[in-house]
Amino acid sequence: MNTIPSATFYGSSLKGYTPPALRENARKLYGDASNAKCFCFPTQSAALEAAAKLPALQLFSEDLDTSGTRHYLLATYEDFWHIYKKRAKKHFYEVIRENVSCKLYFDLEYIRTCNTHVQEEELIATISKLVASGLKQILKRKESSLLPYLKCLVLDSSSNEKFSKHLIFPKIVFPTNRIAGKFVWKLLQMSDSCSNLLVLKPAQNEMQTVLAIDLSVYSRNRCFRILGSSKYGENRPLTIGQTFDQKLFYETLVCYLHSDDVLCIDDVQIGYIQSLDDNSLSSTLKGYSIQKVFHDAINIPHSKGSPYPLIDKFIESVICDGQVKGSIRSVLFLSSSQKLVYNIQKYRYCHRIGRHHKSNHILMIVELNTMLYYQKCLDPECRAIDYRSPPRLLPEQLWSEFQSITK
Ligand SMILES: [Zn+2]
Question: What residue range is the signal peptide (predicted)?
């Protein structure tokens, strides 16, 4: 078997690992057209298990027929792109894994003939306004300073009968998909313009009032259709109004996080958004089980950790001394650069000044491709010089959480 190059990319000197995948099958399906490689899995659970051990790889799925049969592919973004652009028939989805960080995104849909009153532009404008005012409440900043972060990509696969768009905000990110869902839910609760977001949907001889925003996309391990792809058996791909290159394609992927020039909104901050007193939304949407969808996001205290609990534990052991015991407030997993960014609370020791900062928080960064970790800082002076402490190696016993796919 071939060795996948750049062992360091997958973690250097790590134990060999071959996921229980149909590797030859994958090569037959996807390997001929290029040197790009990916692993192919018949079930989501097998794919998720392998993905957890291979942080360099991303999970995608592909429709195999109209009945919902899919298989799952693990590949780097780079390899996936090479495979994807050469596929004539594209029926692919990004799997938005639990505990993996993601961008803010919305899935909008309704049947046009039942909703001739709906102004499409107004619908999108209402959502953008909601996002802006939610951010304003959280960050206590002027809207003008937030403008660069409000960039919104609109992907369209509408037909004459059906309105169907994805909105992606590439510069607003969340530690997990569930927290993204919670943010969206809070936006809806603070809104007095929700009526702009309601549409009619035919259901058992009557019309139901529902949200144009599909809230089920924020549930666990969702498959979310990607730019250029149609559902199987349909020729209605998601388009962006122009031909797209690799860079634009990546920007539209919900889990592709590379830059840290983004607004990261965590669970604590979402709590700063003021809800309207009466739960007018829920009563408007009588019969619609939003509560059920959001039960998890709102009521179950979720883990503040990354997909790598042993690394979280190690970082917790680093952020304490005789006097102060710090804790992890949130973790961002930058999947494309394979970094974990820990937002630390209470413990503020900065190596640049050799003492604790008075008020500014520190960050701990773990690079999964090199197994190094170091400290960064939210202090303006430290940020100005992009300060990072001398890197140190993670303890060797943690490396076994990751395994290379060289064999
Ligand atoms: Zn500092």
Answer: none
CA of 344 to the centre of ligand 1 (A): 13
The rounded Å distance from CA 357 to ligand 1 centre is 7
Structure tokens belonging to residue 164: 């169907």
User: Mean of the pLDDT values across residues 329-350?
Assistant: 90
Instruction: Tell how far the Cα of 263 is from the centroid of ligand 1, in angstroms.
Output: 20
250: confidence class by pLDDT, cuts 50, 70, 90: very high
Residue listed under structure tokens 């799997």: 95
303-338 per-residue burial string, b: 16 or more CB within 10 A, e: under 16: bbbbbbeebbebbbebbeeeeeebebbbbbbbbbeb
How many angstroms does the Cα of residue 346 sit away from the middle of ligand 1?
14
For 108-129, give the DSSP string.
EEEEGGG-TT--HHHHHHHHHH
d(CA 205, CA 225): 30
Taking the centre of ligand 1 as the mean of its atom positions, its distance from the CA of residue 160, in whole angstroms, is 56
CA-based nearest residue to 212, from 295, 133, 130: 130
> What is the DSSP track for 65-110?
STTS-EEEEEE-HHHHHHHHHH-SS--EEEEE-TTS-EEEEEEEEE
Interstrand relation of 349-350 and 372-377 (parallel, antiparallel or unpaired): unpaired
Q: What is the Å distance from ligand 1's center to 383 Cα? A: 8
Q: What pTM did the predictor assign?
A: 0.81
- Nearby residues of 363 by Cβ (< 8 Å), 6 or more positions away: 341, 342, 343, 344, 375, 376, 377, 378
CA 352–ligand 1 middle distance (angstroms): 6
Which amino acid belongs to residue 154? V
